[in-house]
Amino acid sequence: xxxxxxxxxxxxxxxxxxxxxxxxxxxxxxxxxxxxxxxxxxxxxxxxxxxxxxxxxxxxxxxxxxxxxxxxxxxxxxxxxxxxxxxxxxxxxxxxxxxxxxxxxxxxxxxxxxxxxxxxxxxxxxxxxxxxxxxxxxxxxxxxxxxxxxxxxxxxxxxxxxxxxxxxxxxxxxxxxxxxxxxxxxxxxxx
Length: 191
Description:
mainly beta; Porin; 12 strands
């Protein structure tokens, strides 16, 4: 049975750094509904001072407030073109992130299990807020890195961001893939 974690449309993420990278996830009522956890080896913690952490492998878990696994995001290998896989709580692949870097416009395409593009994170690196479009270029979500909504005073960190997914976008596995992709872009490519 699917979890209700992905039934809301606004996720507020507060980033904490340490030997592990942890983020708390809140809902609009300021209730902690989950966490994001990325473990690093000592070498992975030191290497980003020398090279970009976007080329290092990673394993990111999205967990509910009670600790239940909701989704996993994996990147194996140390290359720019290594596949980024999104899995549901049971370990089933539900999507992937295809990233293409260019000097003018980096692209983050979100793929379903058939490798069909279901969404794209747009306007990356042009500004601190960007949009998520479906394959027809209709906006289905957004990421606000400088949001100042009603959570402003409850999450003081400058490493906080808000991920919104439009209520009309309700395809369960695709919503997980979109949310997971937004988290990966913020944690691994923009920080």
